[in-house]
Structure formats: structure tokens, C-alpha cells
Task: inverse folding
């Protein structure tokens, strides 16, 4: 995603050469300092964008300082566990010189001022919250500090240069006079925004880089954190929808006689996605939905069955596809190769399976629509809700709640769950909460695509790779969406081949080809997107080449990585921490290694694995990460721990399969996330770096599956080329 | 009308006796700290205490809770142990998305009430039914192991029980 996105952003910046537009607004509101402005920042990498002209800003964009010295930071990213309600305020507080103990957080409404600085819309994804906010929010904080100092200096009649800010106070060095931010906010809010804002040198950071407790923890341990499902409005009905058992199916006829008789049921409505049952609560709605009799026009989706699709995919993998990368001449390379191998890989559809099933609350009035939901894609949802309801954008508001996990599912390019809920609200004419059951969520599609890959690779006499041909077959997640135009070029969706077309190893003859078949199964980004499968195929095949060459897998990788590659640092750190090649493991245990870059961050993982009763048991994972400068080290550790668990769930157990168009899994008994008893110990180490900060929400996920598979090879001599691994038997 | 004792307070609700306790807590009483995750006792997000024991409220008919002491996450801090478990959770900074944490905390507290010094395998056994997609399991284990030695527990009269 990133490479393509980067190109796109650079193109946009090139087309509009205006460099630094400060669009600013400074308005006093409720006695607080209010800074509303948009900073188009060229940070030297992906997130350069220019402000669209004539944005209308809400008065209080990011900072509100109250008379009691409490500071509210309005966060424009969704908190889905990745820690943005802590790390983003840290960026502001660092430059604002704010008293961290008085910081609180509010989620941003939908407005252009809150757009992602790189993607031009309000959204959370692509592990980009920190990199895209790094310049912007420090500028916001620094501007605030400058204004507060200016206000104090004016009040005291002293030069600004004699004043400094510290711990939410402005201090005059000569006289020792002090004023707290709460006392200065009104005056500061009346000042024009500064033109030049110098940012701190990293050596002066007080907060950035320090392990900081999450601001959202207190609410998440006493039950008060409000998720979408926790929103209750007066007169609100709970709605469950019977959707087609086959993707793309439509209602032919239905009989709701029995359902309507149930106490608590208010009504049954046909909506575009199925039959909606509105009731006084979840239980009557669910019970009534079970009583519906529906005949479906299933459409072509009913022909979809996993074994048949798999056979078609594997056949396609043998055909020439769209070229995603071509270096040298693979035909000549294979002719010259000393040894060659080839392998086929089978990777299933995956559901995101966030703990909080999808849900949306809608209060629709003739001239207004209020929506409460945990979404990762406010701008799209907002526009689609307005269009669906026939309202003007300014008549629609979205309240972003906490997300009980997102993992990409809550950033739907078609705004599927929001549009459906608005359609329900239009039918019901009362406030509604549309709730997806776990079964609805599991069977609701928008999966990580199913993939088949074919790799042929050859090594030279010295063992180094000489030729590599990789063909990928899987649906494009952006096909037929508004993202397609700028993410797909020459038939190649950049997210399909990320991690495959961008593999880091020196291979003189290299070709990567892509087939993007279409079918009725809706697909979507899933934590780490394309990397979620490309790391597995690439890093297990590299491991095969190491063994083919008779080399140690870590040494082999180091031997074929460019000398200046940042992959080397994490690989060496993980190897050192794990005692790779040195530590004596318990009998029946083995290490496997993998290294992968995603979202500009580098992660190496070494898994210690054994077999217990024929099942894979992962005991320990040693991870090393290079994500540039670190904002909150503990947040980084959490994300790597979480990324590993997410990837391990998929590697060991995750598969969505179809029979006659029907999804065969429904709930956590047959789509099983990793449980407590399966949890490995995880040790995370972070490479010290002065590079710009890069993504952390997703990069922990890709390397775990290949690390485990490579360990299993060492244990058993068996190569795992199909996911999930629990379909293999190790008798 | 069904009479319930929730977090020490007696309440009456007008619900079908087969309604799972989870939905009575949420839809009737707006005690939303108890979460819906699966509806079939697979994930434990809905864990509450019934007379001090951890149960899955999504498969517990409200009629079964009648006359018993129901404790939810909202009432947990009323005991020294509950308060201490929350403090340990805070110190380890366990939650990520946080959705499963009410269930995790309720399950951990029920375990610690019976056994303040659980072994590794006893912790695993007690916590294996509560899913977390964000991967907080190791921090949960660390938090549970902090509770017995926590000063807050000793400080409060009554101790663990």
C-alpha cells in the first residue's frame, strides 16, 4: 500500500507546488485556547499533501485548555487498541510543554481539518497514525506554546525571549513570575497564529521516547469505556438483519408472520441487504430473526466452493500475469542456476474477527443524521451516509466511539456497515442500533483475500539466489472501489504484491507476476494487508534456499541483503537476543526465523517451536523492531506482542472456507483466535534509531507465520506451504 | 417481573425469563461494561460473577440469576480484591482495544478469590476461556501475578476474601 501511496502523494505534491500553506483560525471558545489550523507538511516521506482550498475549520481543532488547567486533546485517529489516544497526545504535549497528568482525550468529529495528512481524508489505517502526525501534531503543540508564552509576555510587559514554558506554565526567568496555561488561554486564543514554528531537537524530548501509560486504560478496566455497542439512545430499537447466506444474494420473498408476533418486536422491514427485525433489545430481535422464513435469489455466488476456487487459482498461477516487477532475465537465470526448486502455496480467506462485532447507531431526522460507531474511515462513511439518507454533508455527524478492535474491517471502502444502518434507519423511522451477531460478523465477508502463489527459485554455485519467479493469484482489495484508480497501475494493485515485489534480497533475475481474479466474495485490508501473506511465502522460500545452499538461515539472509539494509539490524538483534546458533534449546525444540519490512518498519522474529501431541506449540518469540524514532516504547511493545498474536492465530488456525457459496465458519469455535493456553512468551527489543518514525500497528504480524513454519521444517523436515498449519498432521 | 440483586442493589426487570442475563444487564439496565462477543460461551467477554463465581452471562438465562448476587465490572471495585485486580491491570497497562478486558478482569478476580497464589497452569486454566484478539495474554498473566503481593490488598481491611 505504501509504495503506491507514496508515489501518489509525491505526484500530488508535484502537481501543486504550494509548499507550506498555513490556513489558520484562532477563535476563543468557552474560555479556552483554541487552535484550529491545517498544516500541509512535507516531512520528507510519504505524508506530503496540500490543503484543499477554502477548508472550513471547526474552531477547536486539536487543543482545548480550560481555566482549571486541564487540557483536552482532540484526536483525529480512531482508537482501536493501537494506542493513538496516548501516542498522538504525546506529540502535542511534548511541544506544548504541557503537564501530562492533566491531559484528557476526545475523539474528533468529522471535518477536513482532521484529515490524514497523507491520504487526504479522515481515516485510521496503514499503520500511519504516527508517521502522518509526527510533524503536524508537534507543530500544533509548538504553536500553542508560542502563543501562550506570547500572551504571558504581553501581560507582564517583558520580552518573549525572557520567558519559557514548562509543565503547563509560562515562567519569566528574571522575575520568577509564573502563569498557568489555564490563566493564559483566553488571551492566547486571541493572538494570530505564529508563522514560524521551530520544533525541538530530539535530544530535548522529555516525553517522546519515554514509556508512557495509556490514557485509555482507566476507562477500559472499569467498564466505562464506550464502544459503539454501548451507545443507547432514548427510544432506540435494536435491529438484526437476516442477510443472504450467499454473497450477492437477494431476497426473493419472505414471511415474517411468526417473527412479528414476538413480544418486543416493533417491526420487520425489507432493506437492500436483507430483512431487518427491529425490537426493544437484542434478544427479542435475535429470537424473531430466527423465526423469519426467507427465500433467497442466491445468484452466481452460490457456485463458489473453496476446493474449486483453489484449483482455478493454482492453474492461474501457472499462467503469465501482470508484471509487478522485472529485474534481469529469469529465463537465463534459471538456465544458469546450479540448483532450483519450486513450490505452491495455499492461503485462505480470513475474517478480521474483532472482539466487538460490527454495530452502528443511527438517529435519523428529516434534516439531520447522527451516527455513533467505531469506524476507521470517517470521511467515506460520512459522505456515504449523507448520500444514502439524501442529506447534505453538513447535516450528518459521526461520533467515533472506541473500537473493540478494527484490524482493517472498520475501514470499509464501500462503507458497508454504515450505509446499511442508514438504510435501516430510513425504514424504521426511530433511532436504531444495528447489531451484527458474531455469526453475521464471521460470515459477513470483507475478508483478507484467499491466495495461491507459485515460486520458482534458483541458486548459483555459491548458494546465492540467481533467479526468482513469483506468481500471485488473489482478488484485489481495491477493485471496483474509489481506491482503485490510484492504487492499481498496469493491472497491479500495489497492496496485492507488497512484500513480494519489494523483497529486499539481492537477486539479479527476478520476476513477480499477479493475477487478480474477481468473484462475489467481498475482500478488504486485514492487519498488514498484502504482507499478511507475502511475508509467509517469501520468507519460507528464502529459508528453503538457505537449506538448499547448506547455509545457516540467519547467515544466509545477511549474505544476500544489501550492505546498508535496515533489515540487517533487526535480524542481527533478534539473533543475538535469541542466542541463535548458540543457545541450547530443550530437546524437541527448534528455532525458525523470518524478517520482513512493512509500513516502513523492519521486524525480525525468531520462534521457538516444538510439537506436542502432533500439534505445533510456539513457546517463545524473540522480536526485534526498527520503526525509527519511538514515541512510546511500551506502545511499540504492545503492538508487536499484539501483531504476533494476530498473525499466529491466522498461521495456526485461521481459515474462512466456502461450500456452495456458504461460509462454513460462524463463531469462535470454528474460527479460532489464539487462546491464553497457546500464548508464547514474547520478548521485544527495539533498535535505537534517529530515523523518522514509521508504522507499528501492523509490522509485527507478517513475520510470525514464516518464522513458525521455518522452525517446523527444522523439527520435522516438512515444509509448510498451506495455511493454516493446523490442517497438517505431524504424526 | 424478575427480581435481581446487581452489585448489591435489588432491581426488578420486565424480561422474558429465557433472556440471557447479558442482555438484561445491557439492554434493560444499561450496564454496558459487560460485553457481547459470541453469544455461545466461546469468548468470555460477557463474564460476570454469580454468587462470586464466574459465569458466561450470554448463556445464563436471567431467571437463573434471580435471587443470586450478580457482580459486574461496574461493581467490582466495591471489594478490596476487585480494586486490587484493577490496580494491577493499570500498572501493567494490560488493555489495548479493551473490549475483552471486563471479562478478563472478572475471570481473574473469580480465580484469585478462590486462590490468591495461582500457579502458572492454574492461571492458564482459569483464563483460557476468555479470548483477546489484541494479544494481551502475557500482560494479563503478569497482572494476575501481581495481585497477591500488591500493597493495596494488604492495606484494605478484609483482605482478599
Result:
Amino acid at each position: 500500500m505504501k509504495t503506491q501511496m507514496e508515489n501518489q502523494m509525491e505526484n500530488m505534491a508535484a502537481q501543486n507546488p504550494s509548499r507550506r500553506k498555513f490556513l489558520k483560525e484562532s477563535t476563543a471558545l468557552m474560555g479556552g485556547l483554541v487552535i484550529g489550523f491545517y498544516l500541509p507538511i512535507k516531512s520528507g516521506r510519504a505524508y506530503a499533501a496540500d490543503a484543499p482550498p477554502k477548508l472550513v475549520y471547526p474552531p477547536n481543532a486539536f487543543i482545548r485548555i480550560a481555566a482549571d488547567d486541564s487540557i483536552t486533546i482532540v484526536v483525529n485517529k480512531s482508537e482501536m487498541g493501537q494506542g493513538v489516544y496516548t501516542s498522538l497526545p504525546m506529540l502535542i504535549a511534548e511541544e506544548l510543554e504541557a503537564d501530562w497528568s492533566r491531559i484528557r482525550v476526545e475523539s474528533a468529529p468529522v471535518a477536513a481539518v482532521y484529515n490524514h495528512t497523507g491520504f487526504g481524508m479522515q481515516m485510521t489505517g496503514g499503520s500511519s497514525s504516527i508517521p502522518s502526525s509526527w510533524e503536524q501534531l508537534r507543530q500544533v503543540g509548538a504553536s500553542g506554546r508560542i502563543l501562550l508564552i506570547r500572551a504571558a509576555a504581553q501581560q507582564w510587559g517583558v520580552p518573549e525571549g525572557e520567558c519559557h514554558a514548562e509543565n503547563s506554565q509560562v515562567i519569566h526567568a528574571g522575575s520568577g513570575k509564573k502563569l498557568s496555561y489555564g490563566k493564559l488561554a483566553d488571551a492566547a486564543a486571541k493572538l494570530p497564529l505564529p508563522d514560524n514554528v521551530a520544533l525541538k531537537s530530539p535530544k530535548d524530548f522529555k516525553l517522546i521516547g519515554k514509556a508512557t501509560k495509556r490514557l485509555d486504560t482507566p476507562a477500559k478496566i472499569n467498564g466505562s469505556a464506550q464502544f459503539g455497542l454501548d451507545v443507547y439512545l432514548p427510544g432506540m430499537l435494536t435491529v438484526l438483519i437476516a442477510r443472504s447466506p450467499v454473497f450477492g444474494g437477494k431476497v426473493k420473498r419472505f414471511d415474517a408472520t411468526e417473527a412479528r408476533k414476538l413480544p418486543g418486536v416493533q417491526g420487520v422491514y425489507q432493506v437492500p441487504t436483507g430483512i431487518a427485525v427491529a425490537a426493544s433489545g437484542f434478544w427479542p430481535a435475535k429470537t424473531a430473526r430466527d423465526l423469519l422464513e426467507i427465500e433467497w435469489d442466491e445468484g452466481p455466488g452460490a457456485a463458489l466452493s473453496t476446493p474449486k476456487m483453489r484449483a482455478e487459482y493454482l492453474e492461474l498461477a501457472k499462467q503469465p500475469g501482470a508484471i509487478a516487477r522485472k529485474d534481469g532475465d529469469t529465463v537465463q537465470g534459471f538456465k544458469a542456476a546450479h540448483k532450483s526448486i519450486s513450490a505452491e502455496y495455499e492461503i485462505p480467506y480470513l475474517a478480521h474477527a474483532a472482539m466487538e462485532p460490527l454495530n452502528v447507531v443511527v438517529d435519523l431526522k428529516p434534516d439531520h443524521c447522527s451516527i455513533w460507531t467505531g469506524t476507521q474511515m470517517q470521511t467515506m462513511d460520512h459522505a456515504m451516509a449523507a448520500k444514502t439518507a439524501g442529506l447534505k454533508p453538513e447535516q450528518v455527524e459521526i461520533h467515533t466511539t472506541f473500537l473493540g478492535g478494527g484490524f482493517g474491517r472498520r475501514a470499509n471502502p464501500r462503507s458497508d456497515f454504515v450505509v446499511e444502518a442508514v438504510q435501516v434507519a430510513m425504514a424504521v423511522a426511530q433511532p436504531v442500533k444495528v447489531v451484527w451477531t458474531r455469526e453475521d460478523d464471521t460470515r459477513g465477508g470483507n475478508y483478507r483475500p484467499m491466495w495461491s502463489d507459485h515460486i520458482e527459485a534458483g541458486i548459483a554455485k555459491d548458494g546465492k539466489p540467481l533467479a526468482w519467479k513469483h506468481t500471485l493469484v488473489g482478488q484485489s482489495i481495491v477493485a471496483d472501489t474509489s481506491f482503485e484508480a490510484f492504487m492499481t497501475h498496469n493491472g497491479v494493485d500495489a497492496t496485492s504484491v507488497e512484500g513480494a515485489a519489494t523483497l529486499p534480497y539481492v537477486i539479479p533475475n527476478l520476476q513477480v507476476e499477479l493475477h487478480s481474479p474477481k468473484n462475489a466474495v467481498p475482500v478488504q485490508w486485514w492487519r498488514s494487508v498484502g504482507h499478511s501473506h507475502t511475508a509467509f511465502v517469501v520468507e519460507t522460500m528464502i529459508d528453503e534456499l538457505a537449506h538448499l545452499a547448506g547455509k545457516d538461515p540467519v547467515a544466509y539472509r545477511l549474505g544476500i541483503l544489501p550492505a546498508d539494509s535496515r533489515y540487517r539490524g533487526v535480524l542481527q538483534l533478534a539473533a543475538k537476543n535469541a542466542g541463535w546458533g548458540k543457545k541450547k534449546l530443550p530437546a524437541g525444540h527448534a528455532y525458525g526465523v523470518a524478517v520482513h519490512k512493512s509500513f516502513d518498519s523492519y521486524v525480525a522474529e525468531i520462534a521457538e517451536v516444538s510439537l506436542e501431541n502432533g500439534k505445533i506449540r510456539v513457546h517463545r518469540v524473540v522480536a526485534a523492531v526498527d520503526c525509527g524514532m519511538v514515541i512510546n516504547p511500551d506502545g511499540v511493545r504492545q503492538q508487536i506482542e499484539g501483531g504476533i498474536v494476530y498473525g499466529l492465530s491466522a498461521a495456526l488456525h485461521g481459515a474462512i472456507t466456502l461450500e456452495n457459496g456458504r461460509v462454513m465458519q460462524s463463531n469462535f469455535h470454528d474460527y479460532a483466535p489464539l487462546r491464553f493456553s497457546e500464548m508464547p512468551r514474547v520478548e521485544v527489543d527495539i533498535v535505537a534509531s534517529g530515523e523518522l518514525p514509521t508504522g507499528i500497528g501492523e509490522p509485527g504480524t507478517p513475520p510470525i507465520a514464516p518464522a513458525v513454519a521455518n522452525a517446523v521444517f527444522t523439527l520435522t523436515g516438512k515444509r509448510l506451504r498451506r495455511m493454516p498449519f493446523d490442517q497438517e498432521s505431524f504424526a | 417481573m424478575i427480581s435481581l440483586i446487581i452489585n448489591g442493589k435489588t432491581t426488578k426487570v420486565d424480561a422474558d425469563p429465557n433472556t440471557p442475563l447479558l442482555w438484561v444487564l445491557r439492554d434493560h439496565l444499561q450496564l454496558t461494561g459487560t460485553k457481547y462477543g459470541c453469544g455461545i460461551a466461546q469468548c468470555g467477554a460477557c463474564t460476570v460473577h454469580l454468587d462470586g463465581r464466574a459465569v458466561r452471562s450470554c448463556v445464563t438465562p436471567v431467571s437463573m440469576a434471580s435471587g443470586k448476587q450478580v457482580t459486574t465490572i461496574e461493581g467490582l471495585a466495591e471489594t478490596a480484591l476487585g480494586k486490587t485486580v484493577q490496580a494491577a491491570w493499570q500498572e501493567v497497562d494490560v488493555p489495548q482495544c479493551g473490549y475483552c478486558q471486563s471479562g478478563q478482569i472478572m475471570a481473574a478476580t473469580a480465580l484469585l478469590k478462590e486462590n490468591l497464589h495461582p500457579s502458572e497452569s492454574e492461571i492458564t486454566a482459569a483464563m483460557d476461556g476468555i479470548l483477546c484478539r489484541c494479544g494481551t495474554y502475557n500482560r494479563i498473566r503478569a497482572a494476575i501475578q501481581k495481585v497477591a503481593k500488591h500493597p493495596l490488598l494488604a492495606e484494605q481491611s478484609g483482605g482478599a476474601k
Remarks:
- The CA atoms of residues 347 and 451 of chain A lie 5 Å apart.
- Chain A touches chain B through 64 residues (CB under 8 Å).
- The longest strand of chain A covers residues 601-612.
